[in-house]
Amino acid sequence: MIMIGHIARHAIVVAIFAAIGLITSHDTASAWGNQGHRVVGSIADRLLKDTNAARNVGEILGTDLRTAGPWMDCLKAVRRDDNDTYSYVVDPEHLDYEVPCTKFKAPEQRAEMIAFVKRNWFTCRYLPDGVHQRACHETYHFDDVAIQRDRFDRTVEGTNPHDLVAAINAAIAVLQDKPAPPPFAIASKREALFMLAHFIGDLHQPMHVGSVYLDAAGNRVDPDATHPADPTTETAGANFIQDENVNLHREWDDIPTDLGDAATRDLIRDARSQPATPGSIEDWPASWATETLGVARQAFAGLSFAPSGPQRWTVSFDDHAAYLRTQDTIKRRQLARAGAHLAELLKAIWP
Ligand SMILES: [Zn+2]
């Protein structure tokens, strides 16, 4: 299956469901809630304390990584109207989305967000004819690699040139004084740092990297082998899979409540014990995606799916209590890894 085709179908499905009010753009691309992104940034802040990297972060952002973590999600409040005018619109139905974004509510900061969105809205090519399907920057948050794959690889279904791994590589390039590869339009190191602070978090949320592909009956299929990805059975990164009142993607976005929204002593200890990533910095995002893909395999273990309507699935669990325990453990480990990897990356950029 060609890479670009999948995202096009995904975008069409998203558009249809957004139109009828079943989902919003937040449903499809907000890995970890703002608490998770703050925790990841906070861990990195602690690991980088008194380093050259921390000095650069402070100079460029004027704030810490904990505050910067949710910035990319705040961009979802930037809307484009039919006159091609972009504006920042607080959603009255979801004032909770706005909580982490109040840090960026000064007019010049809103203007900065609008500028990024405008520059990155029409840059993706989803179909061979270039028909626009969805704001390009909203695709930067995820991949949908089938959990049958043993590694992240740009040739497989669920990846594309404007996916999560590509976005992280683009941000790294800018921070290394190199041009951002297209389609990314990154105007400054400040934007690149906002991207990294967020996307390294997303890269460790298993539902933002690995995905199940289903047939019409809800059986797992392999989109890279016998069953080319089918838009009618799309799960949209588990956003279309319901576990009672919450979708499975959202369930994974929520972090254990005792963590609050900052690094805890346990998370910092776990982050400090992460092994150094081998290889060169350009290969780290793909290698971390491979690691998260393995985690996604665990996150989908013991689950069965049944169709419950058009583009709607319900999940059942072999052992729900055991699943919730595993989920809690995985979330803590992934947050610690994300914080450690963000710090590792910034130290490599600013030794
Ligand atoms: Zn995200």
Would you give an account of this structure?
The protein has 351 residues and is an alpha/beta fold. The protein has a single domain (3-349), classed as P1 Nuclease (Orthogonal Bundle), CATH 1.10.575. It is 45% helix and 9% strand. The chain has helices at residues 3-19, 25-29, 34-47, 52-61, 65-68, 71-74, 95-98, 107-119, 164-175, 189-202, 248-253, 265-272, 284-299, 320-349; strands spanning 78-80, 86-88, 145-146, 210-211, 213-214, 220-221, 241-243, 246-247, 303-309, 312-317. A 4-stranded mixed sheet has the order 8-7-10-9. The protein has a two-stranded antiparallel sheet with strand order 1-2. The termini are far apart. Mean pLDDT is 89; it is low at 1-29. The site of zinc ion has 8 residues, from helix 6 and helix 10.
Keyword list:
14 helices, disordered N terminus, about 45% helix, two-stranded antiparallel sheet, about 350 residues, alpha/beta, P1 Nuclease, binds zinc ion
Short characterization:
The protein has 351 residues and is an alpha/beta fold. The protein contains 14 helices and 10 strands.
Number of helices, counting only DSSP H or I runs of 4 residues or more: 14
Shape: globular
Largest sheet: 4 strands, mixed
Q: Name the CATH superfamily assignment.
A: P1 Nuclease
Return the average pLDDT rounded to an integer: 89
Name the bound molecules: zinc ion
User: SSE order in H/E notation?
Assistant: HHHHHHEEHHEHHEEEEEHHHEEH
Radius of gyration, Cα only, in angstroms? 19 Å
As a percent range, the share of helical residues equals 40-55%
How many discrete structural domains?
1
Structural class: alpha/beta
* CATH architecture term: Orthogonal Bundle
Q: Based on DSSP secondary structure assignment, what is the total number of beta strands?
A: 10
Proportion of residues in β-strands: 5-15%
Low-confidence stretches: 1-29
